[in-house]
Specification:
single chain; 411 residues; alpha+beta; Serine Threonine Protein Phosphatase 5, Tetratricopeptide repeat; C8orf32 fold; 2 domains; six-stranded mixed sheet; two-stranded parallel sheet; 15 helices; 44% helix; disordered N terminus
């Protein structure tokens, strides 16, 4: 299975459609049709109607090939369109393989690689492709993308470097007794949700609550203000899910309202042409005196082999050093697809743990679709890595190679 839960990217923070609409009606129309057909395709795939998935995917490719963009628009949206093509051809390869149409499956996989498919580890283990595993052309194509394996790329990254950071912003956390956070706490009845157990049980209970209350949809940039109450009401009134960023912002406010310090952290890939990232929470446990990894999109947290909760930095280090990681058994996507350590951590998150981005002020409604905000975004990057992001995506960007500064505990 490829990105069959959603053909679309999960992160969207640095995607070309990050503001929810583009500057060209032609691309907007393509994107709208793309999402419509994706839903149809997904239902056919779930029902194992592979002849119909082929029809849906071929329709997507036809739409992409017919889109009429200006030369300027082509330059702007070329990377995103290539990503759409590569994922569609990959899923087409899977469909043909499942129908035992081997030549068509291999040809489709070749086109996926041609348009930039690089997810070696996923293709290596995807059971949908088992019918073409022994095909020589497929084997050669698979070997050609091995260098792009997400875990290998992460393991080859440069280290960090401790340095003076006096000129960098201080991290701050809104107090639980602020008017807005008191409203969040009351609106969601979080005292009842959290329960009467210890702090860690409350953290997990609130994670489970938001995961079960707001659906994730990586392709939807919600038409609402970006705070927990508005995001929740948007989902309930429209039935639409929200992307990982909005889920993490909502969960962040829930934790802050309970006096639990937290940040939402954008986890980024090395490849500047990769439009997919993922946003999760780094939650400070006073009980453990450390940050812990919490992901509302996948109801996920991570432990070591001894059962100790791990933070984002620790998970990254353990992936690099091939040390054991244990994903919680009930990690899943929308209570439909179980997550595994191999796919979620060693593949998907390995790709998105190359560098990180975090806002300096952890507070209610830190970003907005409708108004200017003035948060300072701080990037933690490996030494020697050069960021290549559009200036209009991130304001007041600060860059550091010092993990001690970036992951400093709340004061």
């Amino acid at each position: 299975m490829a990105k069959k839960v959603s053909i679309l990217c999960v992160g969207l923070f640095v995607s070309l459609i990050a503001r929810g609409q583009t500057d060209t009606s032609a691309f907007d129309k393509l994107y709208s049709e793309f999402t419509r057909i994706e839903s149809i395709y997904r239902n056919h795939y779930i029902n194992k109607e592979y002849d119909k998935t082929v029809i849906s995917l071929e329709e997507v490719l036809s739409l992409i090939n017919k889109v009429n963009l200006t030369d300027e628009d082509k330059a702007t949206y070329e990377r995103f369109i290539d990503m759409m093509k590569s994922d569609t051809y990959y899923n087409l390869s899977c469909s043909y393989s499942l129908m035992n149409k081997k030549k068509q499956a291999v040809d489709a996989f070749e086109n996926a690689v041609k348009f930039g498919y690089k997810n070696y580890r996923h293709a290596l283990s995807d059971k949908d492709l088992d019918n073409i595993r022994k095909d020589k052309k497929f084997t050669k194509l698979l070997q050609s993308i091995k260098e792009f394996d997400n875990l290998i790329v992460l393991q080859k990254s440069n280290g960090y470097k401790k340095k003076e950071n006096d000129s960098l912003p201080l991290f701050s956390y809104e107090a639980e007794n602020s008017w807005n956070l008191r409203n969040v706490r009351a609106f969601f009845n979080l005292d009842s949700v959290a329960g009467n157990g210890d702090e860690l049980s409350k953290i997990i209970n609130i994670l489970n609550f938001i995961h079960n209350s707001i659906r994730h949809d990586g392709g939807n940039f919600a038409l609402c203000e970006f705070d927990a109450i508005d995001i929740y009401n948007y989902h309930k009134s429209t039935g639409k899910g929200v992307n990982c960023r909005h889920l993490a912002i909502a969960l962040n406010e829930m934790y802050l309202s309970m006096g639990i310090k937290s940040r939402y952290v954008t986890c980024m890939p090395k490849d500047p042409n990769d439009n997919d990232c993922h946003v999760i929470n780094s939650v400070y446990s006073q009980q453990l005196n450390k940050w812990i990894w919490i992901d509302p999109s996948f109801n996920a947290y991570v432990k070591d082999e001894k059962g100790n909760f791990l933070g984002i930095a620790e998970v990254r280090d353990r992936l690099i050093n091939n040390q054991p990681l244990v994903l919680n058994e009930d990690a899943n996507h929308n209570n439909e697809t179980k997550q595994t350590k191999e796919e979620y951590l060693e593949n998907y998150m390995a790709k998105n743990l190359y560098w990180f981005l975090c806002i300096d002020e952890s507070k209610f409604n830190p970003e907005s679709r409708y108004r200017e905000t003035y948060g300072k975004y701080i990037a933690l990057v490996p030494e020697g890595f050069v960021l290549n992001l559009p200036e209009n995506i991130i304001n007041a960007r600060y860059i550091t190679n010092d993990p001690d500064y970036f992951w400093q505990l709340p004061k």
